[in-house]
Amino acid sequence: MPEFPYSRLRRWPDVEAENLQAYDATDLLLVERALAFDVAGAETVVIGDEYGAITLALTAAERSGIRVHQDLATGRRALARNADELGLSGFHSHELDADLLSAARLVLLQLPKSLAELEEIADAVSRWAAPDVVLVAGGRVKHMTLAQNDVLGRSFANVQAQRAERKSRLIVASDPRPAPAEPPFPVTARHDGLTLVAHGGAFAGVRLDIGTRVLLEVLGLGGSQLLENGPENGGSSGVVNGDQASRVLDLGCGTGALAVSYALAHPEAQVTATDRSAAAVASARATAEANGVADRVSVTHDDAASEIPDASVDVVLLNPPFHLGTSVHTGAATRLFEAAARVLRPGGELFTVYNSSLAYRPELTRLIGPTEQLHRTPKFTVSRSTRH
């Protein structure tokens, strides 16, 4: 069998750079383990395949009918693009549900960053897969912890860490425990009149992360007002200009805190919330429903607002990420700034909160237009950019 051409895989539409590639040693180990799995005709499921390396390598090895779940829209599009490039087909994409896992006997998992996401996945496998399912989870050793074994142990009676190879390690879990009556996710919490709902893979879970809280306060949407001086020193004048902010976009919405808070405070506004994470999208929809604004908050699974028409939005709210996977990289934020520039109408406003050390103001001025600082602390900065 010819060697699979991993080097031909691309990350597109995710950020591409010389120090970023579309596969790693963990992908290779998971593929090798799957090919050595000796149960004939075993139903195989792949979860967390970032750009398709696992799914496509197994498809090329004539493992048919593979079912795959990718949380990120970028991963789903990269898998489709790489499959077209290599002329491969026959795999099937699903959400994290019973259709994905029904009768599965082998599940391959790229370990997620958060323990909550791992807990939700492990519960789903034990709940819906075959009674003799084997879950093989892998990650880079530097990012793995014993806590991951503990989480897997809640859903599987037998959890065995394998010897590290090429700076990656596999964990094999088998003998699924009886699943509890109710899944562990989503979970719910209240924050000053706002109800947040979160699935395991949603950033910050049901916590209101600090950056979002600061942006809510600057916009006058928070439960408390920390701002007392002028705009440059953290004043309260950081509000949306005019009365025409009827079309609002929460770009990278997470659990929907910004979108829902804005909708609650502005009954006339129609708010779109978009995120590339399926877990975030499911969480934001549930948050909108829990707060009674599902009729005015539309949530879409999308990458960098690609489905939003040009110059169609009055206000964009943005708390951008500064990580790509486990790597610190500002490329993700730049893509979202570019998306905001495209969807904002002339005179429309982008409100952004970001780590003060990143100093995004010149970039925002270049990509969007005149940018003023509304609030700054040693940790966070909030700015308003007006579209040229």
What does this structure look like?
With 388 residues, this protein is an alpha/beta fold. It has 2 domains: 6-176, 3-Layer(aba) Sandwich (Rossmann fold), CATH 3.40.50; 187-386, 3-Layer(aba) Sandwich (Rossmann fold), CATH 3.40.50. 29% of the residues lie in helices and 25% in strands. It is built from 11 helices and 18 strands. A 7-stranded mixed beta sheet has the order 3-2-1-4-5-7-6. Strand 8 (187-191) and strand 9 form a beta hairpin. Helix 1 packs parallel to helix 2 (53-60) and helix 5 packs parallel to helix 6 (146-155). It is globular, with a radius of gyration of 22 Å. It starts with 24 loop residues before the first helix and ends with a strand.
Into which percentage range does the β-strand content fall?
25-35%
CATH architecture of the largest domain: 3-Layer(aba) Sandwich
Q: How would you write the strand order of the largest sheet?
A: 3-2-1-4-5-7-6
Helix content bin: 25-40%
What fold name goes in the CATH topology slot of the largest domain?
Rossmann fold
Amino-to-carboxy terminus distance: 56 Å
- Overall mean pLDDT stands at 91
The CATH superfamily of the largest domain bears the name Vaccinia Virus protein VP39
Please provide the ordered H/E string of secondary-structure elements: HEHEHEHEHEHEEEEHEHEHEEEEHEHEE
Q: What is the rounded Rg?
A: 22 Å
What's the assembly state of these chains?
A: single chain
Domains (count): 2
Extract low-pLDDT stretches: 224-238, 323-329
Total DSSP E strands? 18
Shape: globular
Structural class: alpha/beta
